[in-house]
Amino acid sequence: MRFLLVAASGILASLPAFSESLEHCFVGNYHLEDRSDVDISPSVDGTLRWRKFDGTTGALHPQANGTWTSTRGWTKAADGMVVSFAGCDGNAIRFGGIAGTRTDFDVHEITFESHGTRLVGRLVLPRGEAKVPIVVLVHGSEHDSALTSYSLQRMLPAQGIGAFVYDKRGTGKSGGTYTQDYSLLAYDAVAAATTTRSFAGARLGSIGFQGGSQAGWVVPLAASRTAVDFAIVGFGLAVNAIDEDQQSVELQLSEKGYSRGEIRDALKVARAAEKVIASGFSNGFAELDRLRSRYSGARWYKDLRGDYTYLILPRSEAELRIMAPEFDWHTPWNYDPMPVLRSSRTPQLWILGGEDYDAPSRETRKRLQSLIAEGRDYTVAYYKNAEHGITLFEVDATGERISTRYAPGYFQLIRDFALHGTVSGQYGDAELTRPLRHD
Question: What is the secondary structure of 45-99 as a DSSP string?
Fold first, then answer.
């Protein structure tokens, strides 16, 4: 899977080394004179990324005169926005001609342990002494430092909600070895929640988990192991990682107009590739070679990608065997999340995209809606035009998708569920399926 194996889409792209002085100078959440907020975070290739709570976003590129010019979303198209900062000693911003000031939060840098591993986190609270909900931010599969890259650690406190962010094991400032062992990662999330309760003290109102992508498997597990008030999953899955790739192949090829028979043949090839990777690159090569030889001339073969099948197809057995140590992440390929989801008593919000190639949502949405019909406390928000990351996109001349913004209402969904344990009203064009008790 693209997000499982090589990090997520551009939203979670790997960060290069970033200047500490630049980070301390400009990264933060700013309150503008028009009463909106804009968050500034590190990004790639010496740029910054701005995000507003309405879902608009862009990349900021440094200019010789000290200003920064913006490009729309993750495209290269200029959007006319010019941004300037008041230098390293100031807290002011001028964002598209609107003045603003960086918001101060109560910030606590915290080290904690989980299963013998030292993890590093940060508790960010709105200023004051009032009780607030606190969201524990759980990683997806990315290797990046959440302490550096997660903008929700500031965007939520700017909305009156605390956030605890931490580098998962094997990333950033934390110790240990990178893993995709969902159970171990869930125990780490539980340790993060325990640490949050301890340090928040009298400020803690309610507490819950939030995470996207691979965290769709981790968050429900963590919520089953400690008492939390809510759980929020974005672009996650209620199927296993093998089914994920199968569904990705089916979605991609059906959108390209291939027939059901052609797609069935493509799924056979994908299944063989999936068996190879699930075996740790140790067996299944003969069947893969047989199917590749049989179908390599088919008109659909060039478009066969899936979420990780595309990594396997062009490589020989020798090359694949060499790859084994690189992907030795203890991924539970056949993990079935449904028993945990079915037994959950924690109110959960799932936010899904109908155009998600990395985590196809059709079967996940169907399964979650069946749990709602059985009386479980789930809410599903479905954006039919959103892809992985709940972003909208355009398609360039080569056929590649380029994200332009987050779906309207996406961040508001997270905020409202953290505040109230439910959602109400309209969130862009999201199709909401609510628990029966709300109908």
Answer: TT-EEEEETTS-EEEEEE-TTS-EEEEETTSS-EEEEEEEE--TT--EEEETTEE
